[in-house]
Design brief:
Elements: H1 4-15, H2 23-32, H3 38-57, H4 73-82
Length: about 90
């Protein structure tokens, strides 16, 4: 198993009181498209949209209302910029 979080989530979601989820079960769930971490999915979708916006506009300086294929790129960029350390 690649990610310890996968085992933890899988164990909580599927095993109940039966212990950790085995490697074979994890492989089966991955083939079915199991979403182990919703945050990771949202991040990947936002990153794809940001890359698309930047490719079309030559940079990632997007206005707050900017969207790319329905994704709110401007809001994503604003939120990320607000979390960077000062002086960078």
């Amino acid at each position: 198993m690649d990610d310890p979080a996968e085992r933890a989530v899988g164990a909580r979601v599927l095993a109940g009181d039966r212990g950790p989820v085995g490697e074979d079960r994890v492989t089966q769930l991955k083939k079915l498209g199991m979403i182990w971490c919703h945050f990771d999915v949202v991040w990947a979708e936002g990153l794809t949209a940001a890359r698309g916006w930047a490719a079309e506009n030559g940079r990632l300086l997007a206005p707050l209302d900017a969207t790319f294929q329905g994704a709110a790129v401007g809001i994503l960029v604003e939120e990320r910029a607000g979390r960077r350390p000062q002086g960078r």
